[in-house]
Amino acid sequence: MRMSKVLSAILAVGMVFSMVSCSSNTDSSTNKANDTSTEANNDSNTIRIGVLSPLTGNSAQLGTQVVEIYNMMTDIINEEHPELSMAMAATAGIPSMNNAKIELVVADHKSDTTTAVSEAKRLITEQGVVAICGEFTSAQIKAVAVVTEQYKIPLLGSGSAVTLTDGSNNWDWFIRHGISDATYIKDTFDYMVYLNENYDADIQTVALVSEDGEFGANIYPLEEQMAEEYGFEIVENLKYSSGVTNLTSEVLKIKQADPDVILMASSVVSDALLFFSTCKEQQYTPNYVLGQRGAFIQSDFLEAMGDDVNYMCTSGSWASDINKAPIQELVELWATSEYNTTGVDLMDSHVKDAMLLQFLAMALDQAGTTEPEALREALLNPEYDMDTLLVEWEGIEFDDNGQNILSNGVITQWVDGEYKTVYPAKGASVEPVFPMPEWNY
Length: 441
Fold this sequence. Notes:
By secondary structure, this protein is an alpha/beta fold. The protein has helices at about 5-10, 15-20, 30-45, 60-80, 115-125, 140-150, 180-200, 215-230, 250-255, 270-280, 300-305, 325-335, 350-365, 370-380; strands at about 45-55, 100-110, 130-135, 155, 175, 205-210, 235-240, 260-265, 290, 315, 410-415, 420-425. It contains 14 helices and 12 strands.
């Protein structure tokens, strides 16, 4: 059984837990797909969940890690673990559905939108999945959402573009539990104000560095808007082409502008690595760097940068040092799980996607069926005990566009090999360091 892969990990965390504070117009093909999905799951007493993730291509390392933690979460849900405080762990499978087991059907979207669309269709029409989740960019979510709207099954994703849930797409089946770019960026500017008011940082100027793809295009206009609202001067505003092989001119412009803070939106690890290696070549240590997730929360970027990552910050929705029992259980389980083949620490980039499986399992239990409308209703009107969730949010409440309006974020700073929460102050585990120490060239 796959569960044997986490048994030793569960025993290892036994001591940790006590230390933690305790529509009638659908076409026939659509109906057939949904009927086939429900029938297949009922017959086998398994519930098939589609997981789309990049297992090859630019983000293969992250995509593989996300699938690994999905597998670990599936084992936690499918077997009884009364010693764990996290939701869906104490019982086996989905209790309201005769303890039906979750079965993941994983597909590789190769970081390619066209592939993501074709694989989503295959998962629904051939594999009978009742919902789709996984590791997506916002652009891939927009494409896959067209498919899930057609077949009327839930799509859960953590892509952060504001346009996913601002009503411009008129989607009924995409649901975002996590926060949008607007909240991430507001957190970023609030943090700079916090540094000025509490640490005499005297931050006045910022430089924006953004990739020219969907990720950057969604972020920099919000940064421009908030810089004006908060009274920070933008001394440089650079857009670069993702996949570029030379960023010398861009780095020299930033160096000359000498901003107090660089705000960087880069989703591709190789781009971020190139930017900072070029900084070193030009003997330039940025005064302070605040990343907008993306590459900043991917293990291969952190490993490659080594000590130079020290004291860079990033916005995020989760941190491993949050003093909450289910979070600490998950951190310790992952650290010792055989599923964690690369031995990386659990990070925001993993949990923001893996938590979606927990939400799906709870919604299935609440609905008591895989019938799409009932499952969607349970997802949008959850009856959750917030103390059992893998996140520390104010709550879960959805607006008319499928956006959780009570999710909130954190700012973390990389300190000697791990991200530590520095903001908000009530959740901080360390004092922020400002400015960044000089690099060794």
